[in-house]
């Protein structure tokens, strides 16, 4: 059971990190095409700034959060944690995981409300007189934060298995 959960957490977090990495490559190709077309044909790829801002950057920044949490790569301040050994150290790990997961859960809830508002309004930006829908990008944040909350809880409750790199 525990190994199955480990595999599931690893697959989901790795999958999201992969989508983020694909976003980096897609952004690289998109911006390169924009620059080449602007220089040689004086007709750049339309809406590049908007697509980079509303899609690529969001994917790159927020989807890999669960992956970084699983690996233990998030920023942490361990002023006193290294002094805590045994049971006290374990209680501290659980407490930190619960607080962190709680913050992620609040971020999930808040960003979900924003995403639903943007979805209801069918938010878009105008670029060269063309409406580009941006509401789908708002759903990346609650997905990223929600899975980070789950991974953080899992890592806190099962630290030996959940932190494997």
UniProtKB/TrEMBL annotation:
- Cellular-component GO terms for this entry: plasma membrane
Q: Which GO terms describe its molecular function?
A: transmembrane transporter activity
Which of UniProt's keywords are assigned here?
Cell inner membrane, Cell membrane, Membrane, Transmembrane, Transmembrane helix, Transport
Segments forming domain Tripartite ATP-independent periplasmic transporters DctQ component: 27-155
Superkingdom of origin: Bacteria
Instruction: Output one GO BP term.
Output: C4-dicarboxylate transport
In the bilayer, the protein is annotated as: Multi-pass membrane protein
Matching InterPro entries: DctQ, TRAP_DctQ
Q: Which family does it belong to?
A: Belongs to the TRAP transporter small permease family.
User: By what name is this protein known?
Assistant: TRAP transporter small permease protein
């Amino acid at each position: 059971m525990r190994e199955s959960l480990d595999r599931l957490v690893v697959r989901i977090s790795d999958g999201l990190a992969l989508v983020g990495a694909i976003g980096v490559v897609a952004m690289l190709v998109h911006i390169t095409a924009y620059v080449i077309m602007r220089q040689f044909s004086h007709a750049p790829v339309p809406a590049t700034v908007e697509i980079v801002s509303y899609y690529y950057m969001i994917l790159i920044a927020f989807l890999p959060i669960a992956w970084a949490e699983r690996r233990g790569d998030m920023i942490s301040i361990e002023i006193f944690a290294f002094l805590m050994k045994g049971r006290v150290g374990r209680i501290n790990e659980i407490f930190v995981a619960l607080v962190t997961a709680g913050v992620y859960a609040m971020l999930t809830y808040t960003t979900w409300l924003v995403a639903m508002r943007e979805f209801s309004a069918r938010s878009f930006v105008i670029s060269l007189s063309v409406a580009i829908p941006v509401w789908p990008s708002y759903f990346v944040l609650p997905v990223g934060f929600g899975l980070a909350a789950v991974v953080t809880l899992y890592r806190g409750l099962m630290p030996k298995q959940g932190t494997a790199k």
